[in-house]
Design a protein that fits this description.
alpha/beta, Spore Coat Polysaccharide Biosynthesis Protein SpsA, Chain A, 2 domains, 7-stranded mixed β-sheet, globular, disordered N terminus
Length: 319
């Protein structure tokens, strides 16, 4: 009830502002001691009743467009392997996200179910580019292909968003992630393990693995500001990714499976980034296909990655 009432009040206030602007009298309404509008403001409020819904809509759209122009372009990378049923509704959701200007990059990682065709069809009002792998190369290679494609065209002030293509991540968070980058963050992690985060819809073994990995990396790496090391929903400042790519080149992501997201975070930490987290409510109930996570393989990848990070020397020069 509160949300519709809030929207009604906003629209009413907007009508008053439009009426005031039309008359060249944009001002704050005042009230007398009895709680009644003063005569001038009462006349202005009366005049606002003639403002049509179409006029209100035009002003709202104008303000939204102005806000989009003040935010950097967000490049959304969607690594996708056989996600034909989930990709279409996700693209529709992204197309309805009007707070941030988006450019979507679908990396079709050798899908055999028509995922590439769905990506090519795109969604109304959405700029969609397709990067195709002829065969399945794994999540790590798909993420890296998307990053390299974006870095060829993006400006340093742009933002890169990596999210799952199975529709379990909420595109509504992109606005908050982009605003956090504008405010000074270099990496924004959508976290299940901060206040407001939740992953109760995920299978128990995924929840257990995520928590074990988070505790393991938290204790061993002591990365300030990071609670969710394995989240696949993140935002990066383009200039940060460019610095890291210049140093590691094609070795920026070497892991093929789910451990690639942790690997990328470990390598980027040598750039001394500012990292913040925003709450993520994982919508695993929207997932259409079977899980591609293999528990034993992923655990082995995490252990190998941690050992390699502990034993390998840090970069020989500042990244």
């Amino acid at each position: 009830m509160a949300a519709p009432l809030t929207r009604m009040l906003r629209v009413h206030c907007l009508r008053l502002q439009i009426a005031a602007a039309v008359r060249g009298q944009l001002e704050v309404f005042t009230y007398d001691d009895g709680g009644r509008m003063t005569t001038a403001d009462e006349q202005l409020a009366t005049a606002s009743r003639g403002i049509t819904a179409q006029q209100v809509s035009r002003v709202v759209e104008s303000r939204a467009a102005q806000e989009r122009r003040t935010r950097p372009l967000a490049h959304v990378i969607l690594p996708a392997y056989n996600e034909v049923d989930s990709l279409a509704p996700l693209l529709q959701r992204l197309g309805r996200s009007d707070a941030v200007q988006l450019s979507v990059w679908v990396v079709d990682d050798g899908s055999t179910d028509g995922t590439g065709q769905v990506a090519a069809q795109g969604a109304p009002g959405l700029d969609v580019q397709v990067v195709a792998h002829p065969t399945n190369l794994g999540l790590g290679q798909a993420v890296e292909s998307g990053l390299l494609a974006v870095l060829q065209t993006a400006s340093d002030d742009d933002v890169v968003i990596v999210m799952d293509a199975d529709d379990t991540h909420d595109p509504g968070l992109i606005e908050a992630m982009t605003d956090a980058i504008v405010a000074g963050a270099d990496i924004v992690i959508c976290s299940r393990f901060v206040q407001g985060g939740d992953d109760s819809t995920a299978p128990w073994f995924r929840r257990l693995l995520s928590r074990m990995a988070a505790e393991l990396f938290r204790v061993t790496l002591r990365s300030e500001g990071v609670n969710d090391f394995t989240s696949g929903f993140r935002a990066y400042r383009v200039s940060l990714l460019r610095r890291a790519t210049r140093h590691w080149g094609e070795r920026l992501i070497e892991e093929q499976g789910f451990a690639c997201m942790v690997e990328l975070l470990l390598k980027l930490r040598h750039c001394r980034p500012t990292i913040v987290e925003v709450p993520l409510v994982l919508r695993y109930d929207r997932k259409q296909g079977a899980s591609k996570l293999r528990l034993r393989r992923t655990v082995a990848q995490y252990v190998k990655l941690l050992l390699r990070d502990r034993l390998a020397p840090p970069p020989y020069r500042a990244v």
